[in-house]
Each structure stands twice: as structure tokens, then as C-alpha cells.
From TrEMBL:
GO terms for cellular component: cytosol. This is Hypoxanthine phosphoribosyltransferase. It catalyses: GMP + diphosphate = guanine + 5-phospho-alpha-D-ribose 1-diphosphate; IMP + diphosphate = hypoxanthine + 5-phospho-alpha-D-ribose 1-diphosphate. GO terms for biological process: GMP salvage; guanine salvage; hypoxanthine metabolic process; IMP salvage; purine ribonucleoside salvage. Keywords: Cytoplasm, Glycosyltransferase, Magnesium, Metal-binding, Nucleotide-binding, Purine salvage, Transferase. It comes from Aerococcus kribbianus. The gene is hpt. Its cofactor is Mg(2+).
Length: 182
């Protein structure tokens, strides 16, 4: 285990099981819909790669890069589009792939944007869901794992661009980020 990790919250085996379950659910629901699967960069890339390999249906993939965190641990509330989609979503079924949904503010803005762009439907799949932190009225349609309000890293998720490659999801030791509060 990485020495900066206080506790492994979700093991690699638990991640695999949750991704397989989500892939089966999405396959069933999107079998004949050819959805556009939109990966929210960067944290969702690892999850997306695993998820689409479990989806046994035609699909397209696109990417969107957003900024709402800056370098800290809390969302600024301001959502900026750094890289927009290359795909026109009008008349298409869109699946937004998130690594984690906490406040839901970013997700709410993106969901509304796709509806404004006349998507046929917009659904959300998030590997992690942190409902305790929710401030926006958003629905996470497909949830991998619900977690408590802890700062987690691994499986694509980072702190200051580190820890993305961990094969598990862990709780970061407070002393790693304590300098942010001094």
C-alpha cells in the first residue's frame, strides 16, 4: 500500500465487480441505442476504459475536460470547459461517465448543457457517489459504490495530480494535504 494512504476503501477486486455490474446494466439499457459515452477528464479515464470493455453494445466515446477544482480539494463552484466534445449530441443518447459525484455542481451544469444541445437523453454513471456532499439537484443513474464523505484517491482520482495509478481507492492521510489549511 502507498505510504500516503490511511486506508484502502475499495479494493481492486471490489472495483472490478462494480464495473462488471455497471457494464451489464448499461448493456441492457443501451443495447439498441448506440450511445455517446462522454468521459469527463481526467479522473474518469481509468473507469471509462474498464467500463466500455464491459459494455456489450455499440457505442461511441468522446471526451470533455472541465475545471472546477483548481489545485485544491474543494470545488470552486465555477465550471469552465477546457475541452469540448467533438461529437454532436443532438438526437443522441448521452451517458456521462464520472469518477465521483460529490456536490453535483459540475454534473448539473454539464447535464443541462447536453439537454440544451438537444440530446435525446442524458444519463449519468459514476463510479463513486458521495451523497452527503450533494448541493445540486442531480440524479446519478448508475452508481458503482456509495462512499462516506472522505477524500479519496486512486483508480484515476488524484490529489494534486498524484495517486491516479493506484489500483484501489484509498483515503488519503490528512498530513498529506494539511498544508492547505495552514
Amino acid at each position: 500500500m502507498n505510504p500516503d494512504i490511511e486506508e484502502v476503501l475499495i479494493s481492486a477486486e471490489e472495483i472490478d465487480a462494480a464495473v462488471k455490474r455497471l457494464g451489464q446494466e448499461l448493456t441492457k439499457d443501451y443495447q439498441d441505442k448506440n450511445p455517446v459515452v462522454v468521459c469527463i477528464l481526467r479522473g474518469s479515464v481509468v473507469f471509462l476504459a474498464d467500463l466500455v470493455r464491459q459494455m456489450q453494445c455499440p457505442l461511441e466515446i468522446d471526451f470533455m475536460d472541465l475545471s472546477s477544482y483548481g489545485g485544491g480539494m474543494e470545488s470552486s463552484g465555477q465550471v469552465k470547459i477546457l475541452k469540448d466534445l467533438d461529437t454532436d449530441v443532438a438526437g443522441r443518447h448521452v451517458i456521462i461517465v464520472e469518477d465521483i459525484v460529490d456536490t453535483g455542481n459540475t454534473l448539473a451544469k454539464i447535464h443541462d448543457l447536453f439537454l440544451h444541445r438537444q440530446a435525446e437523453s442524458v444519463k449519468v454513471v459514476s463510479f463513486l457517489n458521495k451523497p452527503e456532499r450533494r448541493t445540486a439537484n442531480v440524479t446519478v443513474d448508475y452508481v458503482g459504490v456509495e462512499i462516506p464523505d472522505k477524500f479519496v484517491v486512486g483508480y484515476g482520482m488524484d490529489f494534486d495530480e498524484q495517486y491516479r495509478g493506484l489500483p484501489y481507492i484509498g483515503i488519503l492521510k490528512p498530513n498529506v494535504y494539511a498544508h492547505l489549511f495552514n
